[in-house]
Amino acid sequence: MLENGIFYFAKTKMKRLISRIIATIKNRMLRILNFYGIREMDKMKDNFISLASHELRSPLTAIKGYVELLGEHNEGKLDEESQKYLRNMGISVDRLNALINDILEISKLEGNRIPFKISIFNPKEIIHKSVDEMKFQAKKKNLSLACLPCPDIQIRADRKRLGQILVNLIGNAIKYTEQGKIEIKTEVKGEELLISVNDTGIGISEENLANLFQKFYRIKNDKTRSVSGTGLGLWIARGLSKKMDGDITVESTEGIGSQFTIHLPLA
């Protein structure tokens, strides 16, 4: 009787142990399959985006060329309405090209395929170069664009990506400012360098601030209806900042203006 009890106990224990081993193997196999499945899906997604982008770019380039050709060959011959149609076609093509570029950038950013060359440098040159690059756009809207004195400090970041972020933020400030000025300020706070893009634009409501860095999010009201954009630039800019151990924050008041601040680590 005792032997039967011991046998039954051992058998039950063995069954439980085997069940546990099988469950563990199953879980590990599922994790492996999920891992490789997700990687394969990511690869397929990237391939599709690259292929779709390439296929879209070719006809868009052709359309852009035809629009410019029509404008040149018919200069002075087209009525005002026809000229307006041509301009709108050109704007639409540029918008689609910008969307394709942003989607490609997002795909690379999410897949950790954007190369970063992190180095130690003084950001003064990059800041001034970015401001100079955007001065023509500001001048077209009669806006003042200036860079206030920058502290002589070293940061750890990627030069190219910092320039890309600054151009995006300054470009947004120009888009959403009808009169006044845009200033770039820099200051050291703790272990970070803060680079702020300040404008006297339309400002952002509390509700919109909460969603501002989401993909494809655009502020929709009477003041922004005529402003072009993909709703991806800020998401990309913040993603690039985070890849450099930084961030982007925003403060804004409707009707007064906005301040977008890049946070980057000191060297």
Specify the number of helices: 6
Order of adjacent strands in the largest pleated sheet: 2-4-5-7-6
Q: Profile the largest sheet.
A: 5 strands, mixed
List the helices and strands in order. HHEHEEHEEHHEE
Radius of gyration: 27 Å
CATH topology of the largest domain: Heat Shock Protein 90
Secondary structure category: alpha+beta
CA distance, first residue to last residue: 77 Å
Helix content: 55-70%
Q: What's the total count of β strands?
A: 7
Shape: globular
What is the mean pLDDT?
82
| Poorly predicted sequence stretches spanning 5 or more consecutive residues | 1-11
Supply the CATH superfamily name of the largest domain: Histidine kinase-like ATPase, C-terminal domain
Q: Tell me, what is the CATH class of the largest domain?
A: Alpha Beta
> Number of domains in the coordinates?
2
- Percent of residues in β-strands: 15-25%
Q: Can you walk me through this structure?
A:
By secondary structure, the protein is α+β, with helices and mostly antiparallel strands. The chain has two domains: 1-114, Signal transduction histidine kinase, dimerisation/phosphotransfer (DHp) domain (Helix Hairpins, Orthogonal Bundle), CATH 1.10.287.130; 118-265, Heat Shock Protein 90 (2-Layer Sandwich), CATH 3.30.565. It is built from six helices and seven strands; from the N terminus they run ααβαββαββααββ. The strands form two sheets. It has a five-stranded mixed β-sheet with strand order 2-4-5-7-6. It has a two-stranded antiparallel sheet with strand order 1-3. β4 and β5 form a beta hairpin. α1 runs antiparallel to α2, α3 packs parallel to α4 and α4 packs antiparallel against α6. It is globular. It starts with a helix and ends with a strand. Residues 1-11 have low confidence and may be disordered.
